[in-house]
Amino acid sequence: MKNQMETFPGSRHFRLKQVTDGVYAAIAVPGTGSLANAAIIDLGDSTVVVDTFMSIEAAKDLQTAARGLTGKPVSYVINTHWHSDHTSGNQVFSPQAQIISTTAAREIMATVGKNRVIQQLSNLETLNQAIAELEERSKQETNAKLKEEMLWELASEREYIRMLPDFAYTLPTITFEQQMSICGSDRSVQLITYGGGHTQSDAFVYLPEEKTAIMGDLVLSKHHPVLTHANPQAWLHILEQVELLAIETIVPGHGEICSMRELYEVKQYLNDIHALVAKAVRTHTGIEELSVPKAYEDWHFTTYFQSNLKRVEQLLAEAAGEQ
């Protein structure tokens, strides 16, 4: 295994790390076209890739790494959810590989995701304007950590726009409702969904014998969870179900390879955000006055903190309106 890792140590988009025998994590390098993590699993007689990055170039490097590590072409690609940083590289693996997602995730990709790309292609000026505005804000930002994160975001957005003319939005070809297995000669994987939490439908990949899970964005390591399309209470329920599985090692959607500790940290974050917003609503305090709790000051994706607060505030308002 060591020699195989030396053959392809990674690319400018990601660093390869061996998780366990036959399982490799492709950890995204900030400021490149990867953005999210991916994984490669050698089943023995076939190869699985989990998530495909945000750019074609990053996905091509992932494809090269998978073949270099396993000696076989990729047979299966699993999309853990519909977000572009996990699915934009699908076209690189199609049609040779079967692309798999939950039924609900594919439906969202076929509608919301596809329409978003069509709009982006027809209105590149708006995207470029947004990048110019972010660049201007980054120049004025005095907080070094925030400035660095804004520069990473800028680089990723530019990479995405460069890719768009060659982008062919590629949908999953196989879907499942609750669980499916892919059985190989050396090891097998389980694809599991407990519904939607981070998005409307989230799946993860579980290797029971290896006690390993590739969790997509249900678990992030030292990154603010992104609540843009989230249902935090459902997310918490999903993580409680994951806790019942025998898992020791996690490949998160963002951040370094981690353990169940980071799953517990995500649960705490979701609870803390809810408590912060609920208190602000009770005391008629504007959520824009809330600052990042000390426990999360060193986490990445800091720019999502305010939008996370707004999402929870929106959900609380909707819940109150229903009562």
TrEMBL record:
Question: At the top level of its lineage, which domain of life is listed?
Answer: Bacteria
One GO term in the molecular function aspect is:
hydrolase activity
rRNA processing among keywords: no
Domain Metallo-beta-lactamase, by residue range, is 35-254
Q: Which reaction does it catalyse?
A: 3',5'-cyclic CMP + H2O = CMP + H(+); 3',5'-cyclic UMP + H2O = UMP + H(+)
Q: Which residues form a coiled coil?
A: 117-144
Alphabetized, the UniProt keywords read: Coiled coil, Hydrolase
Q: Which InterPro entries match?
A: Metallo-B-lactamas, NDM-1-like, RibonucZ/Hydroxyglut_hydro
**UniProt function note:** Counteracts the endogenous Pycsar antiviral defense system. Phosphodiesterase that enables metal-dependent hydrolysis of host cyclic nucleotide Pycsar defense signals such as cCMP and cUMP.
**Entry protein name:** Glyoxylase-like metal-dependent hydrolase (Beta-lactamase superfamily II)
